[in-house]
Design a protein that fits this description.
Blueprint lengths: L18 H21 L4 H17 L5 H10 L1 H29 L1 H24 L17 H4 L6 E2 L2 E4 L15 H16 L3 H20 L5 H32 L30 H7 L21
Antiparallel strand pairs: 1-2
Helix pairs in contact: 1-5, 3-4, 4-5, 4-7, 4-8, 5-7, 5-9, 7-8, 7-9
């Protein structure tokens, strides 16, 4: 027996996400992130002081993994060159690719994942603004770091002054080291692969990609170890805030674009077409009345004839 819904209690389906609305949203968030990095350059001397403070704290806690990794990547080109390509390219490729894959193949998880990523990105932007930090590669040579991207710049598309296309190094904020969103975005990618990849290979990549990125950002002297830790912490806070952000966005959307609800009469039955309901045996409203007005009795049969009807001639 087919199930029917109680009139007036129909559930309005959630608006389906469309790529032509999602793409501008993502580009807007990335544009805000890039513009914010440029606007939040901060004072260079303060950025250097922050970088040195982080380095002293790591040495006090025996967490200084940057120096041995940086010496290894500088000494071995077969490690240093791929690491520079990894740092300069993969976050531009892997993160958007996984967003597109989630949108097409895991649509039920896409909205939450996208909101998590964007919320964390904005939190990272706040960190760049409040705590401009000089990366290890820009400290004076006496601190023992080598900028591997400048060292191997002849191998790649980036310039010697920054991890940006040649001639565009001045258009980037090189003091946006804390937190490391390279590590944060890589962690997001790893979680997506682990949870939604569906294969053992995807799970392995979900573990290796964020771990590899953490080693790369330190080995290329672009981030401190604590920058990577802060990137993980930012993603954790973003994950906790994502449900609340979605609720706020839903409230704003409902205020701006209210949904229409079915109108019901006092008896609880839906009113259709201003009271022109159809009754049994009708395909259009008042079909039976029009037949009666025309003098045709509906569903007439021989048994419906009166007893006084004339008998057929013999």
């Amino acid at each position: 027996m087919p199930q029917t819904e109680t009139p007036g209690t129909e559930v309005v389906p959630r608006t389906r996400l469309r790529w032509w609305t999602e793409l501008p949203l993502i580009l807007l968030v990335y544009g805000c992130y890039s513009a914010g990095r440029l606007l939040a350059r901060g004072d260079v001397s303060s950025a250097v002081d922050h970088g040195l403070a982080i380095l002293r704290l790591e040495k006090a806690l025996h967490l200084n993994a940057e120096h041995p990794l940086n010496r290894l990547f500088t000494r071995e080109p077969w490690l240093g060159v791929p690491a520079d390509f990894w740092y300069a390219s993969l976050h531009y490729l892997v993160t958007p690719a996984l967003l597109i894959w989630l949108f097409r193949a895991r649509a039920e998880h896409y909205r939450r994942a996208r909101t998590w990523l964007m919320t964390s990105t904005f939190i990272g932007l706040i960190g760049f603004t409040l705590l401009p930090t000089c990366p290890p590669r820009l400290l004076s040579a006496g601190h023992g770091f080598v900028d591997t991207m400048a060292h191997y710049s002849s191998y790649g598309w980036w310039g010697g002054e920054a991890s940006a296309p040649r001639g565009m190094g001045g258009m980037t904020n090189q003091y946006a080291a804390m937190p490391s969103l390279h590590v944060g975005w890589a962690l997001w990618c790893g979680v997506m692969l682990w949870r939604h990849g569906g294969t053992r290979v995807a799970k392995i990549l979900g573990v290796l990609y964020p771990l590899g990125t953490a080693l790369v950002v330190m080995g290329t002297a672009n981030h401190y170890f604590l920058d990577a830790v802060a990137g993980v912490a930012v993603m954790g806070v973003g994950l906790l805030l994502a449900p609340r952000v979605m609720r706020v966005l839903d409230l704003v959307r409902d205020r701006l674009f209210p949904r229409r609800t079915p109108v019901t009469d006092t008896a609880g039955s839906p009113i259709v077409s201003a009271g022109c309901q159809t009754s049994a045996g009708e395909r259009i409203p008042r079909q039976r009345e029009s037949r009666l007005d025309a003098g045709a009795e509906p569903d007439a049969s021989p048994s419906d004839a009166g007893e006084g009807a004339a008998a057929p001639a013999r």
